[in-house]
Amino acid sequence: MIGELQLALKDCDAALEIRPRYLDALDSRGFVNLKMGQANNAIADYDAALRINPKHPSALYGRGVAKMRTGNAVGGNGDIAAAKLIQPDIADEFASYGIR
């Protein structure tokens, strides 16, 4: 699993070399960092994605989970609530990938 995540991270990095403001690559890299336990890196990626689209539900939710993991419950809960307003089933989507 870790090897696959590292390959996914490299793919995201390669996509961002070509197109630095590629929302899906930033969101995906945030997700990979979250899966790898790199919450601060995930927050940075999700922040970058949200600068492009402040209402991107997976970036909001992922950043919320990452904030919770760093001990920022207020910020995390706020992001998670905002994501659920946009996409009510977002928690189920993340849970299907092992993120709670």
What is shown here, in short?
This protein has 100 residues and is an all-alpha fold. It has helices spanning 2-18, 23-35, 39-52, 57-69, 73-86, 90-95.
Computed over alpha carbons, the radius of gyration is 13 Å
- Taken in chain order, the helices and strands follow as HHHHHH
The general outline is: globular
Question: What profile does the largest beta sheet have?
Answer: none
- First CA to last CA: what distance? 18 Å
Mean pLDDT: 96
Structural class: mainly alpha
β-strand amount: under 5%
Q: How many H/I helices?
A: 6
* Count of strand segments: 0
Low-confidence stretches: none
Helix share bin: over 70%
Q: Your description of this structure?
A:
Helices cover 77% and strands 0% of the residues. The chain has 6 helices and no strands. It has helices spanning 2-18, 23-35, 39-52, 57-69, 73-86, 90-95.
